[in-house]
Amino acid sequence: MKSEVSMNIDFSPLQGTMNHMAMQLAIILVVPLVVGLIVKWLLLSFKIPFRIANFGAVLAFLFAFYKTVLVVL
Question: End-to-end alpha-carbon separation of the chain, Å?
Fold first, then answer.
């Protein structure tokens, strides 16, 4: 005879913390991405070569990521 044990874990006390962590993660990822895309678009609109615009966008992304992490965390 097999006895089934159902274990239901209630994670509702952690909901506020999880929502806060999800919001921080979204901010840390989205803000630098938008900054990098805007920088690339601006550089390409000024007729900067594609490779240089990519490099500038990556630098802007990394800088914005660094600053965002410092502010959020």
Answer: 53
Does an H or E element contain 15, and which? helix 15-45
Tokens representing residue 28 in the block: 């840390």
Which residues, other chains included, contact 68 with Cβ-Cβ below 8 Å and sequence gap of 6+? 27, 28, 31, 32
Which of the four pLDDT bands, split at 50, 70 and 90, describes residue 1?
low
Q: What does 24-67 look like in DSSP terms, one character per residue?
A: HHHHHHHHHHHHHHHHHHHHHHTT--HHHHHHHHHHHHHHHHHH
The secondary structure element, H or E, covering residue 1 is: none
- The structure's pTM equals 0.76
